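Researcher: Structure prediction, please.
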Amino acid sequence: MKTLEKVNYKGFIWPLIIGIILWCITPWRPAGLSSQAWEMFAVFVATIVGCITKPLPIGGTTLVGLVVTVLVGLAPMKDVVNPKTGAVTDTGVLSAFSNSASWLIAMAFIMAYGISKTGLGNRIAYWMIRRFGKKSLGIGYAITGLELVLGALIPSNSARTGGVVWPITESISESYDSKPNSPSRKKIGAYLDFMAFHANILSTALFITGAAPNMVAQQMAQQKGYTMTWGGWFIAAIVPVAVATVIIPLVIYKMF
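Model: Predicted structure follows.
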């Protein structure tokens, strides 16, 4: 049974000291910076220091910084709109939560957790290894295939690799008595790790939902009048990814 983490009160000391010092030297800020910009900088630096000293988990520390930003009047809670023109005159701190990329990342980690807990990722992986894993090169192709399959299911490269592919890769390496902290890593472990890294790049490139930056790129393109659909991205990427899927495992195999 999990319990709530205890607050590390000593961890608040340095963020408070640094934040207050930076705030107090606002009159001597660099030329060209408004007082509001410098005060925002003070809160930002204090939050970063808090993420290092960890008085709370990083998520909690970040929320504290967000709350302080609102309380001291540096930013409103929601967007301020000019009633005459309809234009946004001041961006609210909660506006980022309306960005679909933020929710895509959250959804991705929830999906990765579910796929990991249900064992679906393991079943897909070991089925591929049973079919293609007679040789170490075949295992490299199996890992690549696993990444490409999961790329369509888990819309985050970090969640996909960290939650599913990496634990499986590590398990396979150790089953061949290839340990990461000994010379035995050269048996097969180093090859599989390097292969998993490149397979993740391929799955990221194949799907527009393969990673959060892809979705951000889609939104930026849309603002400029370009429309990128899931199907259009997939069709554009399928040929180079297919070629790389065949060549890269063989090249890395020859390297190792």
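Model: Residues 134 and 142 are 10 Å apart (CA to CA).
Researcher: Thanks, that helps.
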